[in-house]
Amino acid sequence: MAGKKYAAALSQVDRSKTYDYKEAITLAKKISSTKFDSSMEVSFFLNVDPRQADQNIRGAMVLPNGTGKSQKVLVITQGAKEEEAKNAGADYVGGADMLEKIQGGWFDFDIIVATPDMMGQLGKLGRVLGPKGLMPNPKTGTVTMNVAQAIEEIKKGKVEYRVDKDGNVNVMFGKVSFTEEALNENFKALFDQISKVKPNSVKGAYIKKITVSTTMGPGINVTVE
Prior knowledge:
Blueprint (H helix, E strand, L loop, with lengths): L1 H9 L10 H11 L7 E8 L11 E5 L10 E4 L3 H8 L4 E3 L1 H8 L7 E4 L4 H5 L2 H4 L17 H11 E5 L5 E8 L4 H17 L10 E8 L5 E3 L3
Parallel strand pairs: 3-4, 3-5
Antiparallel strand pairs: 1-7, 1-8, 2-6, 8-9
């Protein structure tokens, strides 16, 4: 059945055309056929070599209209910062006790925020957290003394973007249930951010291709402006 739905959705996409991003978002919403509220995703295919340090693009930003997904935040800290984290709305807060739980296979959270003084202990779990993309990083604002601000941004709809080994960046930028206006604003903010972090060493076209899609939906080619 899923194959038929995909084929039906694909038949409505003109594969020979690149769409204006607003047109692409309208079309993606229209042809989404899942029974749940699908995520809207964008993929940027970049002319970068992630093996070069300055081209290994990574960062985070708060989308204007959030993502529609609530994130469970675990804060690894100690002392007075524990109280700050609890007051700011963290779902879980702790130090060595939480690290022990993770070691034992507990992963009931989406993102970790840690204070710098805990990174030594947290680093020992690199083999467990690294492959899952859960290791906090200063570049994405998840290693910080300003715990309250980090939690607030995540709860508002902060997204991380990171280039994969093939030079692609894939980011969720909302849900099908969002208004087109909200999705357009989120897409534009992401596009502007990815454009802004273009490495100086990149020669020629930086963004080679952009596609927009929904969960289990076909990719729609977007004009690179």
